[in-house]
Amino acid sequence: MQDFLSIIFDDLHLTAAKYFFTSAADPWAVKVDIEGRAVFHAVLQGRAAAEVDGQRFVLEAGDIFIVPTGYAHRLTMVDLPAGCPEIDISGEFKGYRDTPIQLGEGDLSAFLISASCSFDVELGQPLMSALPRGMPLHGLGISPPEWLRIGIQFLLQETRELRPGHQSILNRLGDIWFVECLRLYVENLPEGNDSWLRALKDPALATVLSAIHKAPDKDWTVPALAQLACLSRSAFADRFHKIMGKPPLTYVAEHRMRLAAWQLRHSEQPVCRIAEMVGYASETAFGQAFKRLHGVAPGRYREQLRLAEI
Questions:
Q1: Which residue in 97, 167, 245, 297 is a FRET match for 285, CA 20 to 30 A apart?
Q2: What is the pLDDT along the chain (310 residues), one digit of tens a residue?
Q3: 202-309: CATH architecture
Q4: Number of C-alpha atoms within 13 angstroms, CB side, residue 257?
Q5: Do residues 160 and 81 make contact, with C-beta atoms less than 8 angstroms apart?
Q6: Are 271 and 287 in contact (CB under 8 A)?
């Protein structure tokens, strides 16, 4: 599981990590809506309620709430009185704060840390679309888990000193926090769960998916993938389709197109080289496949992106 999880997390390209603390006294309620950024809230002291997509979760000290794509959500005191004003704190994820956000006027109700990271929407699509809009991680005790406690100490040191390489350190810290949370979530998936995430717990599929992601240019066939999975061709194809929701070679083709789009956005590689990198024998075949998916040829796709940035 760890190997494939590492690979798909690398695909996310988490960057632009931001962090801040919130000191909340009753009554209090905040909202966050930053679509396209992964968001993390941890209750360090007290209690809080999290609401997303019509669901409500009560969080105790040591609990964590993840909103993988930044979908609109709320954090409030547990017994929120009617008419309590709601403060939008989405803008706090754009910069740095030396002091906690102060909410309410009564006794301390909750002390929280919130973090967010940008991620690559194209390469992150398979993982992010498989996750729920909100992920509560309960049962971590009356205090933060050890990895989070150490991380907070390190974060406080970094934000005080602002040494060279500051943002790079914060990005790595964001990587660690989010992968720890995802690992906990996947480890606790129920056995009957048939979502894409179950592949992370399936040794056969994790091996196959790791191989596809490590060598997208290889001439993959169903028999070759089945051999990696140590399954018969039919058993492998059925298992892959049931869990991944599509045939093996469809997944291969889609992953190649995601990689190609990323290269066109972020590199200066010529189209012919990108075609080779994602397993196409000719630039023409690659161009046709890319146009079927994106509606434009690879070169035109790159031009449009550059024009949009001007």
A1: 245
A2: 447 878 888 888 888 888 889 999 989 999 999 998 999 998 988 999 999 999 999 999 888 999 999 999 999 999 988 888 899 999 998 877 778 999 988 788 999 989 999 888 888 888 888 888 999 988 666 667 788 878 887 877 776 676 777 778 777 888 888 888 888 888 777 766 667 788 888 889 999 999 999 999 999 999 999 999 999 999 999 999 998 989 999 999 999 999 999 999 989 999 999 999 999 999 999 999 999 989 999 999 999 888 877 6
A3: Orthogonal Bundle (1.10)
A4: 21
A5: no
A6: yes
Q: Which of 90, 79, 93 is nearest to 49 (CA)?
A: 79
DSSP 8-class letter at 96: -
Sort residue 136 into left (φ over 0), alpha (ψ -120 to 50) or beta.
beta
Using alpha carbons only, give the angle 118, 171, 121 rounded to the nearest 5 degrees.
Answer: 25
Q: How deeply is 105 buried, as exposed, middle or buried, from its count of CB atoms within 10 A (0-12, 13-18, 19+)?
A: exposed
Q: What are phi and psi of 233, to 5 degrees?
A: -60, -50
**Three-class SS state of 141:** coil
From the list 216, 46, 50, 43, the residue with the least C-alpha distance to 114 is 43
The domain limits of the chain are: 2-187, 202-309
Q: CA 124, 205, 291: angle at the middle one, nearest 5? A: 45
Other Cβ atoms closer than 10 A to 80 = 16
Q: Which CATH number applies to 2-187: 2.60.120.280, 3.40.850.10, 3.30.1380.10, 3.40.47.10?
A: 2.60.120.280
Tell me 247's DSSP state: -
